[in-house]
Amino acid sequence: MDINKGDILVMKKNHPCGNDQMYVLRSGMDFKLRCTKCQREFMIPRSKAEKNVKKIIREAES
Predict the structure, then answer these.
(1) At 2, which helix (H) or strand (E)?
(2) In terms of C-beta density within 10 A (0-12 exposed, 13-18 middle, 19 or more buried), how is residue 35 classed?
(3) How many CB atoms lie within 10 A of CB 41?
(4) How many CA atoms are closer than 13 Å to the CA of 31, on its beta-carbon side?
(5) Is the pLDDT of residue 62 over 60?
(6) Where are the domains of the chain?
(7) Are the beta carbons of 33 and 25 closer than 8 angstroms?
(8) 6-31, pLDDT tens digit by residue?
(9) Rounded to an integer, what distance in angstroms lies between the CA atom of residue 36 and that of residue 34?
(10) What pTM does this model have?
(11) How far apart are alpha carbons 55 and 10 in whole angstroms?
(12) What is the pLDDT of residues 48-61, one digit of tens each?
């Protein structure tokens, strides 16, 4: 799966704040994501992130 810095991931499960869109700050072996609603940043392993992605919104599309 091709996920780059600046993409917005729509996840299958919601963040505890109720939002399902995460902004990609860093990609590699794990992702650093930021919730677009509450601005909380967190790290998640690549395998877990790729399994939970429903849709990718590219930086150029928005």
Answers:
(1) none
(2) buried
(3) 12
(4) 25
(5) no
(6) 8-57
(7) yes
(8) 999 999 999 999 999 999 999 999 99
(9) 6
(10) 0.88
(11) 5
(12) 999 999 999 987 65
